[in-house]
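P.,

For your records, the input lines for the assembly:
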Amino acid sequence: MSKVNQPNYALLGEQLDQLKAETMAKVGQEDADHIRKMIVIHRVFEWSGRILLMLGFINPFLWLVGVLSLALAKILDNMEIGHNVMHGQYDWMNDKQINSKAYEWDIACDGGSWNRVHNYEHHTFTNIIGKDRDFGYGLLRLSNDFRWRIKNLWQFATYILLSVMFQWGIAYHELAAERVFFGKKNDTRKSQISAKQLKRKFFSKGAKQLVKDYLLFPLLAGPFFLWVFAGNFLANLIRNLWTSTIIFCGHFTGDVKTFSEQECENETRGQWYYRQALGSSNLKGGNLFHILTGHLSFQIEHHLFPDMPAKRYREVAPKVQLIFAQHSIHYNTGSFIRQYSSVLKRIFRYSFP
Amino acid sequence: MKSLINRFSRWGSRNLLHHDSLGGYFEPVIQLFKPNWRAGLYRAQVSDVSLLLEGVVAINLRVDDRWPIHQAGQHIDLTLEIAGKLVTRVFTVASSPNLAKTKNTIRLVVKIQPEGGLTHQLPVLTRGDWVNISAPRGEFVFEESKQSSLFLAAGSGITPFIAILSSLQKERAIAQPIHLIYYAKPEQHLLVDELNELSQQLPRFTFELMSRAVHGDVYEQLSDYINAKLLVCGPNKFYQSAKEFAKIYDCAISAEHFSLMGITESTTSEFEVSLNGKQLSLKNTSPLLNQLLTLGEHVNYGCKIGICHQCQCTKKSGVVKDIRTGQVSDRSEELIQLCVSQVLTDLELET
Ligand code: FES
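Structure tokens returned:
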């Protein structure tokens, strides 16, 4: 890898492996209780939200609380529960419901598809241009590794649109990569799933979500169809904006580095860790903030240890920071405002050649 | 009507809530009110724990009314939550169906395994603790016939016979004579008091206690029973002796044998691995995923280095080792990553 003073990769690998082993040895009842508690909170907010939306006719204020409650539930399901469970962070529990094979989240994207693109491609090939399609999602130009095109001029608007529709962007992600509907097939991509299966999964999961939020629950409300329809729409919108923002803060702040495929050939464990470290950035915040981000506020730790129960990132973070300091690796962290404005600057900056 | 509601709730939970059942979706919420409640399993509460011998524990469980009562000789899965992890093991019910019917109680008699795991947790259980059990399963049951029966038990393999014999107790006198040969280390025979009692209550039942050191292999005891029907429960080796006898003399034999296969780590060995029912033979020299792919099996994978969990599959039984950490798995059902798993015993896998 091209960096002036390279860290001692072997030592870095060893230190981080050891930190992982130490922490995983502590994982147990506390972690199981945490994820179950999150699920309980989700169920409570989801169902109170859905009921309150129908009671909007008594007082619109109830409707507003309903929207927020449902949005909160959807955020929890997406981030602290769905994202983390689907990463396999709780597979050790042997629980029939809470594991990466069984869990399916409440968004338009089929869990299996996300697992392939995100858990495999993104987490394995983080920020390797050409292999990690999460880098700019094939829509945004975020570094000079990509040639500038006219469409990049209005990529800020594209970004806003992507955020608004984020769940659909994620749902469509793998299909875009596989050129299921448009574009020339990319022969170097080896897929374990056929275009037909992809399409079927995309439509069936998407349709289920649409029917649920925009037909079934509104119909249940009878004359208040539109109230519920609008409430569900808003809740989905809030969740989309939130998750998109958090995820952009984790990977596309100004300092985040990119890598080329050649650089990463025959990578050692230490080098892999190093790439993960430079490909992510953290957000500072309190307890509630961390939970609402699904602990992606610890994006660095998440990328180093993707299948460690996420709440543990809090205790490993200071140790990771120490190790990084020892190897003079930049530990990219900052407040939400700082990181987010850095993201916006980056999107804006690369709009131009 | 009920089945219609069931179908509707199943459809709803699958399509709207993305869970197999409504119970699964609400499980952590239900657990707030009913500790240890789990969709698809039954709850049972520990009512008594006692040590029968050094290293052998008897546990009485109170089952709820919904539990489908076992047939004598059947077994159940017992699931405990140990440090957040659900661990499951199979045990024969060592009490009569009648006890379950009248007192809602079943008893398990368990030998504590030296290698740890679930059985170590059993003596620590106390009255009032909750555990999970499955519905009863198994074909090892006793059928009445004219022919005389020979029961062969070894070690904790006595448990199904206790259940069978005590279920006969309450019923009308049985036609056939039953003889039990029970092998164990000297002074290590379990539940001898109960066997004595049973032999008094059942006129046609007799038993002998034996041990290898004194009486030799079980095979040598069988020559008097050429016409009997054999029921065997014990370790694999014990069963093999009986099976050989049955083959030579053409006796009917039905058996329940537990083979705790030894773990092979140091030497290069091949193991029987069943993948979705298909039998393969795999080595312990490279990770399971590599070998399956070389054999042309269609298994999912991604990174091949243990990050992405794409190669996740369910290990129904057997032992594997995580090659990254060196950690040796449990014997019971759990999720494993094929790309970082080395096989240590025969395995049953499901993708
Ligand atoms: S293939 Fe990625 S974890 Fe096994």
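Two observations worth noting. The CA atoms of residues 77 and 134 of chain B lie 5 Å apart. The mean pLDDT of chain B is 89.

Regards
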